[in-house]
Queue: 4 jobs
Job 1
Amino acid sequence: MKKVFKWIGISLVGLIVLITLVIGIAVWFIFTPEKITPIVRSQASKMLSCETQIGEVELTFFSTFPRFGLKMKQFALMNHIDGVQSDTIIQAEQFVGIVNLEAFWKRNELIFNDMKLQNGTLNAFTDSLGHSNYDVVKSDTVAAEEESGTPFHIIKLEHIGLKNIQISYIDQTLGLLTDVRNLTAEISGNMISDTIKTQINVSEGLLSVTYDGEQYLRNASIETRTMVQIILSKMQVTFDKSEASINDMSLTYSGTASYVETPFQVITDISYQSKTLPLKEVLAIIPPSYQSYVEGIVADGLVTSDGIIKGVYSDSLMPLLDMRIILQDGTMQYVGFPIPMSAMNGEFVFYSDLTNDETSYFRIDHLNGRTPQSDFQTSGTITHLFSDIHYDLKSEGNFTLKEFSSMLPAKPKMELNGKASAKVSSQFSMSELDKMQLDRMKFAGSIHLSGFSTIYDTVSLQTDVSDVYFEIPNLHAKSKKTSFIAAKITSKNLQISTLHSTNALLKNALISFESSDVMDESIIPNVNCSFKMDSLSAQMDTISLRANMPVGNFEMMPQKGNNHLAELNIDLTGQALKASFGSGSSSMHQLRMKAQLIDNPVRPQMVIEYSGENLKVAMGADSVSMHTIDLKADVLNDKSQKDVFQQWQANGFLKMDKGLITMETLPFLLEIPSIQMDFSPEVFNIKESKLRIDNSDFSLEGKLSNIISYFRNDSLLRGDFNFVSNTSDLVQLMGLTSGLGEDESVKPSAEETSTGPYMVPKGIDITLNVNVGLAHFGSGVATDIKGKLRVKDGLLVLDDFNFLTPAAKMQLTAMYRTPRKNHLFMGLEFHMLDIEISELLKIIPDVDSLMPMLRSFSGKGEFHMAAETYLDSLYDVKKSTIRGAASIKGQDLVLMDGETFTEIAKTLKFSKQTYNKVDSLSAEFTVFKQEIDVYPFLIVMDKYKGVVAGRHNMDMSFDYHISVVDSPLPVKFGIDVTGTIDDMKYRPAKCRYPEMYRPNARGEVKNSQLELRKLIRESLTEKVPKE
Amino acid sequence: MKKILVCLMVCFSFSILFNSCTKEEASFDETLLIGKWVSGTVFYKYVNDYTGGTWDTADDVTEAEAQPFTWSLVKSELTHIHIMEVGGNVPKVYTVTELSANSLKYKDDFGTTFSFTKVVK
């Protein structure tokens, strides 16, 4: 048995040796390159229309053992068409192909068992008209193939090896430039009918791709393991569980791509899944035209992605990308957001056909991350990726605000401190954000602030705990006009202050705010702000304010017909209000205030309604209290006017009651039982005005009219008031007001003392109808005081003041006129009826100087006096202007029983029974400059009648004449008395008036004297009412 | 009784002694009075409607601020009636001693004399 196997073995070896020998002989001696090369070249020229270069062709056996192969050296095909990158279509130093000859002969199968291409170049080119440089198979060959279909049952590539191959493919119809360098790949596959199944494994290569002028890859390191089926009839490529790697970023994919020639379309349906990829490198391969989306972004981390690419690719269409991206441990920095973000994890979906803005979106299923001191998370959708990117996000975060200081503008100065927890939903586009078009964006959310403080320019704000709710736009607006923004702030403590020592503290405050677009500078915004708080404290310099339970509403809106001017409405109530200012303070309860302000650059208007109870104002030791106060005023501020009264024009009313005023300089309380007045720019109508000071009370009613007209110099300022007092203590009042406002410790300067006399205002006509029931002046009293006090155009008049005193019924008219500062007129008309002579001398002591004999009389008489003079600016009398006249008349006067009377009676030997009675006394005297002329008057006493006349000078010298016209003596005689009181001279003289009081006997001269007296008296008494 | 008689006689004698004949009164042309007269700083102005005014520039009073009076000249008796604004009149009676186109002199009952010169326009 062994021998059998031995012989069989020897036979086989012998056979092999024989075959080998035969093959060797055939290869080396029969199929030599010299014989094969011309055949191949000849066949190539027959089949190919292009120029060919075929070096040496040899049949191989031993190098391709156990199959025969064909080795070509220096193989090249060349074809020139315009625009081609190289005339060489393919060029290789060496090409080795092994064909299964058995399958070819027996089964008509073309099986390449092995094919190797080394160090070759492949240049494929298709111009814009579809002409390709690789279309080199002659047409008759192609036609034959097309007629008969594939000439082989099977075309099979068992192994194609490519090594160091440079491939360039340019397709101008697609705008595609593909360049592969240093390609090393292995390809295997088969073709049955029109179906090619192949596996392409690229182990090395550098890929560059430019499409439509844009370079997508540049020398990217590629590796692939592709299982692909190509159905030629359908021009369909199907990938199955393929894997590709670009720059070590690998992904698996499968799916189909179909080519439709006319119209040009590639229909894709490919799914992929990446392995974990470094984000930085992913971002690096984003095509330049999409780099703008990530411009300024420096990001890193790991991403994975899966998805599908489905749809039609054509000249106008791109297939739909539905990509899910997962980010892990990402970091990011963005130029516009200079705070680094880290620990970013998220899941995103990118859904786009890269063309259609409407259907494309980037969805953030979740994204969370951190900054150095804050954390955040967000989700939402980003749409309109290829136009104006639109964000619809819901975000939450806990922020340390100081971290964001670098994002705040340098001017005005801004600072942020504290922590904020926020939940915000937002909808906005990039263009809206860039232009800060808040009216187009939507924001809503809440912010919880803790330990928050901020500075904006000169204003700072602080709060320990506050919550802010906001909404843009305001979907729950009270009015359409305030639908831009709504905000609600609740704060336990909110402090607002400025650098200029102004601050406000709000406790337990609730502030609701809504507004129109405040960024719109073309129109005044509509603002509605209501507030309610437990307390409000505010301080500005030395002024402080504290309000308990202030509740209010503030509205601002553009005026009707003028969008650039504001109208403000303020409504404020408060339980208690306290304020202090320097040494002063004030308080009020039940404060109610409404105000409307209508802005105008020239004539702003304001309507104020103000009321309060228990108003108290104190300034040092002085204080004012008021039980109730009501004020309504419609105020127009006319800035075009120069005078302050014309600038501020008010209509309205003022009502106060139960007021008390205490002043350090006043020992008594000033009580104001009530004040009621209406006021308008033209008229002040005082309906009721009462004042009580200790024992005095006053009431003033009346109208002051033509106010504005007066200040415009159009009219007299007219006033007509009733001044009524039941009781007035004049001495007390004068004491109260004397020196009021003057500091006794400070001597007035020369400037102050030379401010000039009181000048009666011109252009006014004010009448005070005085009615005082009882007036005390020291120990004296006056009752039933009635008269008019009138100030008219530079003239002050006490007109017909009638009053009663215990001494007399009196009537006084006085004038003070101020034509110029150094020329002041003062006039006086005084009537005392039924007055005690002694009282007269007390009231007007100067009369005693003129008529010293009056001192000795007792009884009642009447006294009339008129006097006037001009004064200089120091109130010194201008003596040349003195004018005066007086008349005194008495009946049944009694010569006081005293030493003087006794002496006279003794000297003149009055009868013992003579009662010291003077029958009558009637005298007139005048004052002219410095001369006081006493007109002749008759004195009748006992048996004597005397006529006295003379002159008294201001220097107190005198020159009197006494005519004794009736006496026990049978003759009439006269006595001249001259000199002064201290140096009196008596001189007998002619009796000048012997017949003056005898109408039948008196002469013309005497009559004229009496006429003058009559003139004087009548002119003095013509105003005295006849009784 | 003798003493009384002596006294009476003395008085009687005095009364006779002092009774004298009345001089005939001079008469002046009042038209000469019309115009402005000055004495030192004192001015008087007579208007032909028998009104007038007086002022003293020493007291910083101007002609426009003159105080009014009415006047009359009967023979030699010149009467000024100064009219007060508040009501009331102040009569002053003088006896003219000289009145010419340029000179005015008068005196009062107390021997005070006044001398004026005409103010030429």
Job 2
Amino acid sequence: MGNLNTTMIEKYRNSFLHEVEANVEEGEWVKMCMQCGVCSGSCPLGPHWDHPPQELFMMIRAGKREEVLTSSSMWMCTSCYNCIVRCPRELPITHIMHGLAHYAKRLGLVPENQQTEKFAQLFWDNLTNTGRVNELKLGLKLYFMNGFGEGIKMSLKMQDVGLNMLKTGRMSPFELLGGHSIKDKTGFHAMLQKAKELEDAKIAKHGA
Amino acid sequence: MTDTIATNESILVIGGGISGMTAALEAAECGKQVILVEKTPSLGGRVSQLYKYFPKLCHPTCGMEINSRRIKANKNLRVITMAEVDEITGNAGNYNVSITKQPRYINDNCTACGECANAVEAKFDNEHNYNMDKRKGAYLPFNMAYPQRYVLDSGIIGTDDADKAKAACRYDAVDLDMQKETVQLNVGAVIWATGWQPFDAANIQPYGYDRYDNVITSVEFERMMDDFGPTGGKILRPSDNKEAKNIAFIQCAGSRDRNYLKHCSRICCMASLKQTTYVREQYADDGKATIYYIDIRAIDRFEDFYAKVQADTNVSFIKSKVASITEERGTGNPVLHGVNTEGYDRYDNAHDLVVLAVGMQPSVDREKFPVEVITNEHGFIERPEGSTGMFAAGCASDALDVNRAVQNATASALRAIQVVNRFSKTEV
């Protein structure tokens, strides 16, 4: 397959919009944006983004591939859906943000130490293991995501919540020993494997 | 000239706004018998509620006066107010129409002296001022009303106020026994001039029209400028009646938005540009207007007007669809939040008053018509394929400004005349 990023640059030279339309989930909507700015104004995390959604859309159309795909902007989306609700053209903006993030990850262009990306990977690994989310392990992994010292600090800070959850039966300490699972774990893993094959085949079509 | 004039040679015009009046007058002045039916007690419609027209900035009262004179002078035209069409049967050239006429409780002895209004105490929401103030239970809809006859609100019938009105009248014009009537007509062609209504701004929840006093609509702003309007011709904030000198105009309030009205209402850009001149007229250099827009659609020759407003240093333009409005505690100032897309700068701008340039939607839903009509996806009436004797005029057919509505109405009058002529064999 070679380097996917290089392949894509070659294939869609000067037409980043087409690349987004073909490869990013809901990417075909990007051209429908009329630059009114209501999404950017409605975003609760707006002040913390490098580029709010409508600016990202304009950058895509202007072919600013590098700036868009290496941006941390789409990773800031918290899925509050304010933008989708208010968009006068009903663009699925939240989904496009996730689509862009996903595509950037596949190309290996995620900014270093991107917290949302790190957590998303933890969540995925945790979930696909048994088919159920192991909250105890996920929580601990999350606390220790940024190093041992940070982890201890965070664990101490959250210990009341944790103990209360144990007390009320919301979380079991035995989850540490493997945790609960779905009935057909083998089937589930086969399914994920198949999905991965399909996905890889789709990408291979773009391959050199 | 043919020797006999059958009733099916007449034309029915439904709706007495500027389009209906125009269609009716054009047909009547061509010698056709015309019946003009209006739901409210007076002709005039939405145009009578405007302060000034764009782009010439003249007053619509002038045109209303001319039209009233034309109507009075024309023996071919019969006006029926407070009436609605219930049923239409038949085909082009021969329609049977049933009309219900509500009682006015005032007969044509009325001289519009106003004594009944002085006598009556009960007050009701004033529709002419978009319910921003109250009117008496006996009232003239507005100064230029046609016919110049008072009306008793059905709400006072059976109360002391009704008797007071009757006692106060020196011309025996009050008739409390007036009843609802049904009128049957035979006509050859029908013109729907049912007009438009402002989009209900309360639907746009982020703008808080239903929550904040100082967020009003463009049609309400027009009424403020009228000397006989709810504020006596002053631009005042509804919350505290203070002068509003720093005014924000929000474009596309309901229009061009798939959540509300999908179409561009076409008039609102020009309406807001016009309304910035009201701010200047009232406050000179102290008045500030800010227009928040997606793009300004000053179509064809209106570009000149846009350029003139742009040259006014007290008017600023911010390219942004406002995301939301909040209210500043203590001052009651509306604060607009959003991103200026020219530079992607976030703003939180406080203003004295916000005017929402609300969109235009048909005033009658398709299902509410007494016959089947074909509408486009926005609810405006389209012409069916093949021959028909029914035509839409003015804003029943599309979002139009007054100029285009009048042109459109004249065209529909001509179409109706052709139908009538074809069936009366004066034209082959």
Job 3
Amino acid sequence: MTDSMTVMTNVMLRIDPQACDGIGMCAHLAPDLITLDRWGYPIIPTRVLDVEEVSQATKAVKGCPKKALHLIANK
Amino acid sequence: MLVDYFVLSAPAGQREDYNAHIQRNGVLERCDRSLIDAVAEVALTGRGGAHFPVARKWQPVLQAISTAARLTVVVNAAEGEPSSRKDAEIMRRNPHLVLDGAVALSQSLVTGTYAAADIVVWLHEGDDISLSSIQRAIDERAGLDEPPMRVLLTPARYVSGESTSVIRAVQSERRTGKATAFPRFTVDPGRPWLQDDADGNPILVHNCETMARIGQIARVGALAYRATSLVTVTAPGGLRVLEVGPDTTFATLLASLGVVTPSAVLLGGYGGQWVEWLRIADLAVDPDALRTHGLSLGAGIIIPLAPEECGLQKTAEIAAWMAGQSAKACGPCTFGLPAVAELMTKISKKAKARDLRELHEVCGLIPGRGACRHPDGTVRMVTSALEVFAEDLDQHTHSRCLAHPRKHRR
């Protein structure tokens, strides 16, 4: 589990909107970062995450049953 | 000058075959990277509607091509909107100009590398006249030393013309031998025009008109470039396609087609924006001129609001059509667009404050959250209507309508 040990900086959340089914797991796992819209689809921060936000974001990424949520490097 | 030409050299209703094309336009010399400079010099922008600088699209391709085995150049001629016909017109009249552009582009980008190139023409199923014209053109060029060319057909939907759909289909064809319009590969929304497939091979998509312009620039050079615009105007007798010079104003254009002065026009089509006539009448039908006024010509679609039409009702009808065209692949589009259409329909009958509030809220939830730009365009069109038809919206709160003042609405 090297990736969870490494502190990731300068990363952003990204949704694959076609893979997302609006299950809502991400909002349970990362309630400080992700809210659901009126149809149950996640609204994610469009900015670079703070260092202390990354662990919660990682939980949401790993917990997504559709593998629709990703952490990506900010280019 | 009202009617000018850089692209549509063939007269209306006539198809230029290869020999006629060569006689009129001359043989296309083999291209090198100087084409890139020429396209940058004339500041050519993408005519599929986004008006992204074309030469800038090529930078990542140039990087990728040094290690890639293959470059696929795609001509996007899948014109998804009922009010657009310029690309069909080019395909029917000047198919060789389009292929010239694809050939010139492939040659200039793969110069000095070991990569091969191939050319794909992306077309809607059922667009039989364009299909036969381009297929004949491909056959007419069979003996030339050019990259292999083929046509891919896509179901005729609005979103099939989205470059993201095109790229996914080409990827899926490479992998499975069959082009599916909506396979599940994620395209980087930051650079949707280029996606390295599993082998790292770039796919470059350009709109049909853009490609024809590249072909002409390759032939005549930057100095002889003419900054014309191809437009499709919804006129009394039906759709009219014209190529106009950069000094043509909207007033001149509509007058020449016998269109009664409208109160507003929908500029850029169903995913474009409503603009008050007084704001746009004396502006030039030119993407650069419009950009300085914060407007976009989009794919050259101009829909004047007819005097008997209610702008809010028309907006509701278009929003409903756009909702029906969703590929239903992404939640915010699948659920958001029908919600927008339903609220807009209610408002076009009687504008209740509660519905308006909800419409603004829903419109705020949609943009930037789909895999393609379809939902964003729809929201842009609807929000522009709420601004441009503000006065009529006020009438509608009292169940009245500026277009039908005498009709009592309940």
Job 4
Amino acid sequence: MADPQIIPFPQQPLRAPSVAPLLAFDGVSIRRGGGLVLSDVSFGLSPHGISCLLGPNGAGKSLCLRLAAQLILPEEGRITCDLPPSQIAYVPQNPVLLRRSVSGNLVHALKLSGVRWRDRRDRLQTLLTQARLTFAADQPAQSLSSGEAQRLTLVRALASQPQLLLLDEPCASLDPASTAALEELVCTIARSGTKIVLVTHDVGQAKRLADDVVFLASGKVRETGPADRFFEAPGSNAARAYLEGRLLT
Amino acid sequence: MFDFATAFAEAFALVFAGDAALVQIVGLSLWVSGCAVLISCLLGLPLGAALAMTRFAGRRALVVAMSALMGLPPVVVGLTLYLMLSQSGPFAVFELLYTPTAMIIAQVVLVTPIVTTLTRQVIEDLDRDLSETLRALRASWFDRVGTLLWEARLALVTAALAGMGRALAEVGAVMIVGGNINHATRVMTTSIALETSRGELALALALGLVLLALSLGINAAVLGLRDRAEHQVAHG
């Protein structure tokens, strides 16, 4: 039997320097249905590189991302971010493409971002090239494969040239080849200076991409720190169990 | 005894000969209903979208009222408008009674709730799918409304078509406010009613055939347009 093809790790992005956090959660709590789904969540993320919010399903990772995107407000605690909302882009777990062409989707996003019409053509070409979708510019967005559609939603979020990009499980339903292409794009964006916060429950993906990790379980932050240290010597029982593949309840 | 075959033969002869009276009646019908549907769309599309995307006290009551108005009896609309436009009514000064404008107003009153309610339903469903994506793209409220209306364009064409169907088939209100005056306010439905009562079945049947053909033609065209657009969206 032939050996499976191993997809190489993408080139590592810049390591995060230790500076004041770009985004900080301070004692944030959220209630749903009478129970706490986020409980006293506190962490800070550096302005550079890729931070992963890692944890099992239901840990509260996506909720943290929506809070960071300012789509919902915390009931308790405080979230501070040095950036205006226009500089924060968010790609939801199930983004929807508009019933237009690939270019139409990007032009719409550029228009919403206030890009002047005479600059749109150049920006459109840049985004299409970034997503490697130049060949599909005039195709209906609905006809793209899952991987292509996810790359399109990712570059669509870049239309506003954000400083902070929040990605909610962007590779959740992709095959390895599409995942590799998307991870490469994520690394390219991070290297260009955009801070990326990535939600994932995939330990392998977090290892490949993360500069630092915020580990959540059951609505609480169990551990935060640089990715190397987190994966080599996790400090919490919950993180150790998760990395060993044991089930967290 | 009434001879069906003769009546149908005369009706087809009128249609294919392009009878002047028939053409004038059909033309006026299309003008009145077309204007009414256009105005109803201009009112109903933004109103329906606003109802779908805005939360305010009394919204639920407004939604229920708008749905109920879809079944508004045309004769009641006609009577109300008659009272308002007649010599003793508050709008007598405009001298609109027994004019095509009065008929357009009556049809706008009947069609706008249909367009508004269907638009609200379509936009509400679509907003559920697109809301987070559009908010993530930092779309303003007006941007969201515009985007959703454009995304729902195929379904909204159907809403406009439903309005056109209602307008073309309407008889009670336009009869009361239009007066069914020959060469002035006589449309297909009022003509059919009149000619039938007078025993002039050939013209009534001819108009009925045209009405039926128009209805089928518009429906077929819109369905074809929708299928084509959906195919393009899905397959390029």
